[in-house]
Amino acid sequence: MTSPIWHPFTQHALEPTLQKIAATDGAYLIEENGRRVLDAISSWWVITHGHRHPLIMQAIRHALDRYDQIIFAEYSHDPAEDLARGLVKLAPAGLNHVFYSDSGSTAVEVALKMALGTFHNRGLKRSRIVVMEHSYHGDTIGTMSTGERGVFNAAYEPLLFGVDTIPFPDPGEEQQTLDALERLCRSGQTAALLIEPLVLGAGGMKIYAPQLLAQLREITKRHDVLLIADEVMTGWGRTGTLLACEQAGVAPDILCLSKGITGGALPLAATLATSEIFEAHCSTDRRKTFFHSSSYTANPIACAAAVANLDVWRNEPVLDRIATIETLHRERLRRFESSSGIADIRQIGTIAVVELAVPAGGYLSDVGPKLRRFFRERGALIRPLGNVIYLMPPYCVTEADLDLAYDAISDGIDQLARGAL
Ligand code: PLP
């Protein structure tokens, strides 16, 4: 019997049924037939330490004995309080207030509303959002509006609002990006720059230098424009530091976190804001209230998982593991330097990228799905973004696991070149 499930980002005409996963274990997914598949992309970048980290699982079990969902407009609870204090401690200085939601998209939506609310409550007319070319911030109407326009959102275009875009800083062309932001900020209409720090993820794992982020930050500060750092993907160690912003010495006005906030165990998100932004919403005038909520805000079980994740970061050598993965990637990426048909090789932290020179068809070409199938057969979950093959493994991954993934990538590229896929 066919399943009634409609899966995300899945063309069911080409993939009528999907394999079931029976269990997860460390860096591996275990298919129903018992086959172990390396989760080389951390299940859409959420699993940081590995599947089912024992401390996080234990915290969830404990929390289940006390809580389920609790309305968060009327009450608070320890897991949310403990987590908020922990997040403020680890975030760049000045981000003193924590607003909870439940996905990366909602974390960004909340950030956009905070930015506009701040200027609105101060009686200022600033409502334009600046984004970077090739960005991705989610799939809700608001976050799609701020992301790259193209095949993914063409049908919904009439619902999307306009934003201002600065070019991605290709090497040698950084000044154009800076000049574009400067020009836009001078208009006096800009409320915020929304940006993925150091790596544009779904837009093709495009990497830019920390120095540029610092320069962009300087421009926003000069023009009293808010900086929203979307660290939904880059946060929790992916780029080599806990947060990517750290590498640029940048403290944003608003910080969006999700994915690895619970180590990937449960859905949760947090949007951190400065006291200035919080104060702009604090008034005896009730119209200045921050009007946002969702039913499952600050779910206690998810918050308890996130508190345990903070303990893992405190008590285990997570950054050492990440540094080891970075070195292993560097050594293994070298094999592609002499390969033909490669447009670019790049890496940062636990993210390694091999960009193929062909095809130009982007996401709609059948190269990605062909490679994906080949990689799965070889025992690794790797989902190329069009012609961009990347790895983003959980931090428990071993050298042997990485060898499996890299061998699969090399062989897949060879087979593709020979027309054998
Ligand atoms: N922002 C960034 C940078 C992301 O990479 C993603 C998802 O990949 C999102 C936002 C949206 O997160 P979610 O899929 O949890 O809504």
UniProtKB/TrEMBL annotation:
Keywords in alphabetical order: Aminotransferase, Biotin biosynthesis, Cytoplasm, Pyridoxal phosphate, S-adenosyl-L-methionine, Transferase
GN (gene name): bioA
Protein family according to the UniProt entry: Belongs to the class-III pyridoxal-phosphate-dependent aminotransferase family. BioA subfamily.
Matches recorded under Gene3D superfamilies: Aspartate Aminotransferase, domain 1 (3.90.1150.10), Type I PLP-dependent aspartate aminotransferase-like (Major domain) (3.40.640.10)
N-terminal signal peptide: none
Species of origin: Rhizobium lemnae
Protein known as: Adenosylmethionine-8-amino-7-oxononanoate aminotransferase
Required co-factors: pyridoxal 5'-phosphate
Residues found modified as N6-(pyridoxal phosphate)lysine: 259
